[in-house]
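Workshop exercise sheet. Pairs work together: one partner reads the sequence aloud, the other fills in the structure field after running the prediction. Swap roles for the next sheet.
Pair: D.N. / O.F.
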Amino acid sequence: MLRSEFAKLLESTIIPEGIEQEDIKSRIYPISAALMSMLPQKLYRYRSCSTLNLDAFDKDLVYAVTADKFNDPYDTLVYYSLDNIQEQMRACCTEEFLEQFKQILETKDFEFPPSVIQFFGRNNLTG
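Structure field:
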């Protein structure tokens, strides 16, 4: 597939908000298939001859950096919509669900995971 054909495929693919997961998959499939057809059988990366690179080669390792070290800040840009989150919460958190969830939390056997306790503080989780 030519680059221009792939660009047209990308530009013509529209995924509206709120459609079913299966519909999303069917719309993305042509892009995925095109990408798979363009992947080379082997990919090479030439590196300088340094101790770190030789060590990585010897130990079959790949070194990576954290997102804050990327040279393009938009590579790790996180987008969220507070309105969308609230809408999703309202859709799934019915009164019945919240009442059942409250009952689970009030049982004597329930214990929050340590990471949740550390983040919120034990006093903020008991009521």
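Discussion prompt: Residues 21-38 form the longest helix (18 residues). What would you look at next?
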